[in-house]
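User: I'm writing a tutorial on reading structure tokens. Could you give me a worked example: one chain, its sequence, then its tokens, then a sentence or two explaining what the tokens reveal?
Assistant: Sure. Here is the example chain.
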Amino acid sequence: MSELFNEQWMKKYQSEWNKDPELVTALEAINFNSIIGYGFPDEITPRGCIIVENGLIIDAGSYNGQDLNWDLRAKQNHWNEWLNREVGKAGFSLAYTTGKLKFIEGDFKTIYKDQGMTRPFIKSFSAMGRVNN
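And here are its predicted structure tokens:
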């Protein structure tokens, strides 16, 4: 099992994301373009980063100072929990309101209110869960 959010893990995440038609098609439909960082709350910067253009990840790897649209942070045990089981909208709302999932950049409320973003956000965690399987 590779280390969460390292270069190798992020490349596998890119592959899993890009081969998920529900995820890619939904984001393509809303012309989703973003730079997203992932990491842990006790670290200054995220560990991993993806660049998404029209729903597809065009680059993934270590965070190297990119300007982020979204920066998601959680403790290792919370990431592991979400990657090992399906979590729905209510579960992520609870994670956000209890502080388990932190948005250093970006706004969870935007995702929660926009159905065009809610489902793909949840699906992105399913893609993460397939990385180590």
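What the tokens reveal: The beta strands are 34-39, 48-53, 56-62, 70-73, 102-105. Residues 52 and 62 are 15 Å apart (CA to CA).
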